Queue: 3 jobs
Job 1
Amino acid sequence: MCARNRRQFLATDRTTKKVVIGLDDTFVPMGFRQKNGQLAGYDIDLAKAVFKRYGINVDFQTIDWSMKETELKNQTIDLIWNGYSVTPERKEKVAFSDNYLINHQILVTKTKSNIKTIKDMAGKTLGVQTGSSGAFDLDAQPKLLKNFIANKTPILYDTFNDAFIDLDAGRIQGILMDEVYARYYIAHKPDPSSYRIASDDFPPENFAVGMRKSDNVLRSKINAGLKALKADGTVAKLQKKWFGKVEE
């Protein structure tokens, strides 16, 4: 990369040749902290692989997920890369890379609750993460679920971990959340059979990398890197590692 492009490529930290990626470090299996405190996950590995191609170091910074666009605007971070769904509302604030993974919003309940469909949530309490795509979908398509739940208003959580604690305790009866998180989290619980994925009625969504609209060179390099990693089999390898199968 020429010096001029490198200066454009690195939005906030030109001297140390690194990009700063903001993430919610509880979002398994995309980006999360292991018991030893180290970050791991599909997005962590994918981002490192992309920037390795350009000799650029990656600094992952934990942020308040509900403030991610503000952190980007204030140049505290260069990228939002952590299961970040493309929505019309977000497109008004940020530029997106090409899509790199398909995701769904699903309803997770307890098996013993007998909640098997969205309509079974009538009068029940629903949890969602603040600032999540699930929260956006709930407002965008109220007839699908929001109009049925207690008070037509969900309980908001800082993390999905907190929502699962309340689901297990019976304080809420369902969580609207990302499928990739739900399936991984449930599979690693002591009793996976105690949970039910009750619905996938919401339309599919795409994960992409978010950045400032002025960062055109950065966007093109990320897109080129993602394309190359898919072509050489790296993407398939990482998907098998984190999802147990190759996704679309």
Job 2
Amino acid sequence: MEGVSSHTRENVYSRVEQEANWSLPHLNPGVLSLRDLRSSRFQITFRKAEELDGWHAVFGKVVYGFDLLKVLSEQGNTNGELKQPVAITTGGAIPAGTHPRDYLKKLEQPEDPEAHGYNKKVMRYSSTYRHTGLIGH
């Protein structure tokens, strides 16, 4: 799945220079990598994707929200075309001193469940991804 960061290109570019790793493999579902180094486009893998290795720098992995990753993967066909539109509406950092699980569970609670007609889902990623050969590490 492909997405676009809401941060400025300069912000994303400088962060990517620090965190992206061209040698990490796209070994598991949930690996985040850059689609294009000069833009804010990124992708999340739904499966092992060795064809991306060396072509797209890895900058993180999903560590929370694998249920959402599965739902997202079911929105496309085998040709990579979407069955219906998918949007990642926001992103951000967890406030210092807040336990990630508590923060993310609070975000999942709908403010007004009938206002939009959809459920809010949350996915968390870690930028400290280091390949260890094990899924989820």
Job 3
Amino acid sequence: MHDVMNSIMTGQTTDAQIGAFLVGLSMKGETIEEITASAKVMR
């Protein structure tokens, strides 16, 4: 999760990749660990 969020935050991913990631994450359901890792990268 850290690497994916880092790629998103640094502009290394396309809008389509971000959309696919978010749809997949939503379908799977986010875990507390994933949310925490995402928040740490966004700081």
